[in-house]
Design brief:
This protein has 1148 residues and is α/β, with parallel strands linked by helices. Helix content is 27%, strand content 15%. The longest helix is centred in the last third of the chain and has 30 residues, at 1102-1131.
Length: 1148
């Protein structure tokens, strides 16, 4: 069906000859008049009706002075592009194009412009109809020096170009009696592409294949437009054309973008093929960032070219950066990936090969996002710490979706961050558009694991090397505790690992305190980031702006991060930097003598300015072990002088404070007399003058914790703390260890203990203070208000000369004038009779519940009478719940009770109160293990038995495990790793000796330390670091046997083997065999468990015996775990018959 052009005005054309005129000069361009109403294609059975509700803006090609006005009735039909596409012709010169070989779609034609050719094209039009949206006349460049006029036509399906307007109307089937007039003035718009024109008309791009439309930055001309497109067959292509002014460029960009969007919406063709998506997924898997569904998004983008004049190009690789490149942008869980377009092996296959490397950037390294509201260009900036920003100049028709997706995943990875750490320059409608939250799984502590893992991925770190814990049963909890690296070969974290932890903690409101105890922060103290410019440093969580005194001095990264950490959390109250900064003296001088040459520790400088102005809620600082200099003291005194800081606690032990520094600091702290609760001045070199100290300390009536241990005092008889000062406080903890106390100080403490003001005191450390048994007895009688009733207090009196007036201490214990917890570690008894008297007094005591007598030193091993007294103590004491009788085995000193204690341990079968027994390093041997096994068969109250490092080898360990088959109450027993390693070492040594002598032999022994568990390890409870396969730890406070055993025993447990009836029926240590059967060999061991060398048969395999012994140890450990799981199950109310199913759930 033929189509006609209907015009409502008479066409005129002014002829001109411009053969010798420069085509780049400004000329008048014919105007066809604006089309103010949307074009509607009236559909017949073979036509498509398309209605555009958006009016096309005016263009320079349709109106202007002296131009021709003509209106078109938009019932038109355009030729359908042929299926066969021709390749891009070879440039006529090597300078024809510097761009990659990316050509636009070229429609083949007959090469004739005659009427017959026009009739031939009518047969090629087909049944599809389209509407013209925009058109205009331009100049094209066919090379460096060739320029010619062209005419562009934007339809609802394609962007077409022709040699002239006359050719356009002829090929579109529109009669035109006149040709466009060429004005003599004005600048003519120009057109250029990546290839020369060789046909009458050409399809620049199918609208649904357009990737982006934007203004390139290569030539710094704002009136230039670039259209990038991509086809699955011909590949990527790019077209650049220049317009008269910026306004006309904006009109063309708006028209092309709008038409391309509508075309993509109505197109049924998928944006990306399955092969491409699979290829990109494999590239992300190689980066360990592939997570399907909502964390895997792919877009086709253009890497925009840069201005070649702004940089020095030294190679062809840099020269290629001047031009745009079409590629894919994939967004994973942690990174943004730029994936190049793959190459196909051949046209007949779908196999893809790599075409360049993938460029990946961490989403949490994002430093800036900018997006144009006039075209498809946008820019992503990424910056690693202490490095310059890397900017990705991109363009895509999906720019808005890409920007919102990156923001969405960034908020998912940092759910607690209120102010994002990147600048945002995007259109207002995107800022106001709400970001839909991703589907989240419930995570503890505000997703600290998720954020930390994301920062590790952004910094290319191994997240499994970072080990931390969360303690809940502490003051100002929950407490985040950073532990040493999981890798035992490393002692410190790197600067990026520390930075990842600090940034993960920022804005997190889950923790009341954060501890870096023992973790070196020096790597961040040595790092300076001169490129840092993060906006959150200038506002707190509530959005309140902060004003700090500007300085030209570059601050370390540690100062900036700690300042942000303290400012961005409202729940954080306490920071622990115990020994986290190591200061090195210069030239052997003290810090106090180096003057201005020594810099501050950084921690004080970071937080004290915030405290002074009330910008943070952190009010408790532990700086123990960090030597402070005068500059640090200035920060401290300046912050303490104002009440806005509301300090609650300062722990300044071993900080190198002189007497003058202490006096200045205490004087400044007077402003916090109503808030200060804790003060630690221990281990400082300055000498304390007792009267001055008492004068300063009397200003703090709400003090709860005081530590004056290891301090030096001036000479004099004045008490270190007077009774008047002590009576002003309601102390909970008082530590005077390693500080010599005179009689006046002991009397003052006794007076305080006798007063109701001391009822809150629960911890009193008097270790190594020089007090005698007389002083200890005086303190015990003073703290006892009701005879026979224990006071809830832990008294530490170890390492003191208690042998003096020892009888008074024995009498106080016999009378029940003791606290509930008593520690007497490392007491040296010159006579065994004195220790025996103490044991007899403890036997009849009814108030002590926790007793520590570890490392007691006797002149020789305990005799029969002392061992008998110990047996009576084990059998008849009815108050002690926790007992520690561990010994000590050092190079220069050994403290143990001797083998006679084995007979006393048997009396524990009669005890009905003891729940925890620690008896390590007492060299119990195999005979002691046999006694323990017999005791465990009868005892029903013991919950924890610590008996490691006692030379209990495989025979004794097997006997204990056999006994546990009849014990359903024990929840803790070590796996004897140290003893196992010692035996295996001796066994291997014996094999080596016998091999050297030409015989076979046996022997065994200290295990390599087990690896620490750690992918972002979280440890609950008492804060002790879990160690894999180190010991079996099952306590009453644990919840659930399955979770407990997965943490303590991450081992595979096979089918358990029960002991043979013969081993179960043995009732005495003597009846148990002292030999070990391994295969066909019988190995004999000494009475202490050490192997005795024996010549084995010639057929024996020493390495095979070694493997058999290892397997035997492993089997016994598995049996132990099974029995303990059974006991935990029964303690929680489970049935004994169901313990095997619990094992299956826990380990299989």
């Amino acid at each position: 069906m033929s189509q006609e052009w209907v015009t409502s005005s008479t066409q005129t054309r002014r002829k001109s000859f411009g053969f010798f005129s420069r085509p780049s000069m400004l000329q008048d361009i014919p105007d066809l008049g604006p089309v103010s109403t949307p074009r509607t294609l009236h559909k017949n059975p073979t036509m498509i009706e398309l209605s555009l509700t958006r009016a096309r803006p005016k263009s320079m090609f349709f109106s202007g002075p002296g131009g021709i006005t003509e209106e078109l009735d938009s019932t038109i039909s355009l030729p359908q592009p042929r299926g066969k596409l021709s390749k891009r012709p070879r440039p006529k010169s090597m300078f024809g194009s510097f761009k990659p070989r990316e050509s636009s779609f070229v429609t083949e034609s007959s090469g004739s412009s005659s009427a017959a050719s026009s009739h031939e094209r009518e047969d090629e039009i087909g049944d599809f109809g389209v509407a013209i949206l925009h058109h205009g006349e331009v100049l094209s460049t066919g090379g460096l020096l060739r320029r010619r006029k062209e005419f562009l036509v934007l339809t609802t399906k394609e962007l077409l170009r022709y040699k002239s307007q006359q050719k356009a109307w002829d090929n579109l089937g529109q009669p035109c009696n006149s040709t466009p007039r060429t004005p003599t003035t004005g600048r003519t718009a120009s057109f250029s592409s990546t290839s020369d024109l060789t046909t009458t008309d050409r399809v620049v791009a199918q609208l649904d294949q357009i990737v982006s439309v934007y203004k390139p930055d290569v030539d710094n001309n704002p009136s230039t437009i670039q259209v990038d497109h991509m086809d699955d067959i011909s590949g990527p292509g790019s077209t650049v054309f220049q317009l008269q002014n910026v306004e006309e460029a904006d009109v063309w960009i708006d028209a092309i973008r709008t038409a391309a969007t509508i075309s993509r919406e109505v197109s049924e063709k998928p944006l990306l093929s399955t092969n491409i998506i699979a290829h990109i997924a494999r590239r992300l898997e190689a980066e360990r960032d592939y997570v399907p569904d909502q964390f895997f998004r792919v877009y086709t983008i253009v890497q925009r070219g840069t201005n070649g004049k702004s940089h020095h190009r030294s190679s062809s690789d840099d020269l290629s950066k001047m031009y745009s490149t079409i590629c894919y942008l994939a967004i994973g869980l942690h990174k943004v990936h730029i994936v190049p377009i793959p190459k196909t092996l051949n046209r007949s296959t779908t196999s893809l090969v790599l075409n360049g490397g993938t460029v990946s950037s961490g989403i949490l390294n994002l430093s800036s996002i900018s997006m144009s509201d006039k075209d498809d260009s946008f820019t992503l900036g990424f910056r690693l710490p202490c490095r310059t920003e890397m900017r990705l100049n991109l363009a895509s028709c999906h720019a808005a979706s890409i920007v919102q997706s990156i923001r969405q995943i960034s908020e998912y990875l940092r759910p607690e961050w209120i102010i994002p750490p990147f600048t945002l320059d995007i259109p207002e409608f995107l800022k106001d558009e709400p970001i839909a939250p991703l589907t989240e799984t419930k995570e503890d502590y505000n997703c600290i694991d998720r954020t930390l893992a994301a920062y590790c991925a952004a910094y290319d770190l191994d997240a499994s090397s970072i080990c931390y814990g969360v303690l809940t049963d502490v003051e100002d909890g929950p407490q985040f505790v950073l532990y040493p690296p999981a890798n035992t070969r490393r002692k410190t974290y790197s600067d990026l690992e520390l930075l990842a932890v600090l940034k993960s903690l920022r804005w997190n409101e889950s923790f009341g305190s954060i501890s870096f105890r023992g973790i070196s922060l020096d790597p961040l103290m040595k790092a300076y980031d001169k490129f840092a410019d993060e906006p959150e440093f200038y506002a707190n969580r509530s959005g309140k702006s902060i004003f700090l005194k500007p300085t030209d001095v570059q601050r370390p990264v540690l100062v900036l991060e700690l300042r942000a950490l303290a400012m961005c959390s409202t729940k954080l109250r306490k920071l622990d930097f115990y020994e986290s900064i190591v200061r090195k003296r210069k030239g052997g001088l003290d810090f106090q003598n180096v003057g201005e040459e020594s810099e501050g520790c950084g921690v004080v400088e970071a937080v004290m300015p915030l405290c002074r102005r009330g910008y943070t809620n952190v009010d408790w600082f532990n700086l123990t072990g960090i030597e402070l200099v005068e500059s640090d003291l200035d920060w401290l005194v300046d912050a303490a002088a104002t009440k806005l800081a509301h300090f609650r606690g300062f722990e300044l032990g071993r900080c190198g404070l002189t007497e003058r520094m202490v006096s200045l600091f205490l004087a400044a702290l007077v402003a916090h007399e109503n808030t200060l609760e804790a003060l630690d001045l221990s281990g400082n070199p300055g000498r304390f003058h007792a009267p001055s100290l008492n004068t300063s300390m009397c200003y703090f009536p709400y003090l709860r914790k005081l530590n004056l241990s290891r301090v030096l005092r001036a000479t004099g008889t004045d008490p270190l703390l007077t009774a008047e000062v002590l009576l002003r406080w309601r102390l909970e903890e008082l530590d005077l260890s390693e500080t010599q106390l005179n009689g006046e100080t002991v009397d003052a403490i006794s007076t305080y203990l006798a007063s109701p003001q001391s009822d809150a005191l629960h911890e009193l450390w008097l270790t190594q203070t020089g007090i005698t048994s007389h002083d200890a007895a005086t303190l015990m009688y003073s703290m006892t208000s009701v005879p026979g009733k224990a006071r809830d207090m832990h008294l530490h009196i170890g390492q003191n000369p208690l042998q003096r007036n020892h009888s008074e201490l024995v009498e106080a214990i016999s009378a029940g004038a003791t606290p509930s917890h008593l520690t007497m570690r490392m007491v040296d008894y010159p006579k065994e009779e004195m220790f025996r008297e103490l044991i007899k007094a403890l036997t009849i005591n009814k108030t002590i519940q926790y007793l520590d007598l570890s490392k007691i030193s006797l002149p020789y091993e305990a005799g029969p009478d002392t061992c008998a007294a110990l047996g009576e103590f084990f059998a008849k004491n009815t108050s002690i719940i926790d007992l520690d009788l561990s010994g000590e085995q050092a190079v220069l000193e050994t403290a143990r009770l001797g083998v006679g204690i084995n007979s006393a341990l048997g009396r524990l079968a009669e005890n009905h109160t003891l729940q925890t027994l620690r008896i390590e390093l007492q060299t119990l041997g195999t005979s002691g293990a046999m006694v323990l096994s017999q005791m465990l068969r009868k005892n029903t109250t013991l919950r924890q038995l610590h008996c490691d490092m006692n030379r209990i080898f495989l025979q004794g360990f097997s006997a204990i495990v056999n006994a546990l088959e009849y014990n359903t109450t024990l929840l803790y027993l070590p796996t004897m790793e140290m003893d196992r390693a010692e035996q295996m070492k001796a066994f291997k040594s014996q094999i080596s000796i016998n091999s050297a002598n030409g015989t076979n032999g046996t022997a065994t022994t200290p295990p390599p330390q087990p690896a620490k568990s750690s992918f972002l390890q979280r440890i609950q409870g008492d804060g002790k670091r879990a160690k894999v396969a180190k010991k079996v730890s099952i306590s009453d406070h644990h919840q659930g046997s399955t979770q407990l055993f997965q943490n303590v025993y991450p081992l595979h447990l096979g089918k358990l083997s029960k002991p043979s009836p013969a081993s179960n029926t043995s009732n005495s240590a003597a009846s148990l065999s002292s030999t070990l059967v391994l295969g066909d060999e019988v190995l004999q061991f000494g009475s202490n468990g050490a192997p005795v060398p024996l010549g084995l048969s010639s057929s024996s395999d020493p390495q095979g015996l070694l493997r058999l012994m290892e397997n035997k140890w492993e089997a016994e450990v598995n049996r132990l775990m099974g029995v303990l799981v059974r006991n935990v199950t029964m303690l929680e109310g489970g049935d004994q018959s169901s313990w095997e199913s619990v094992l299956a759930n826990a380990f299989l």
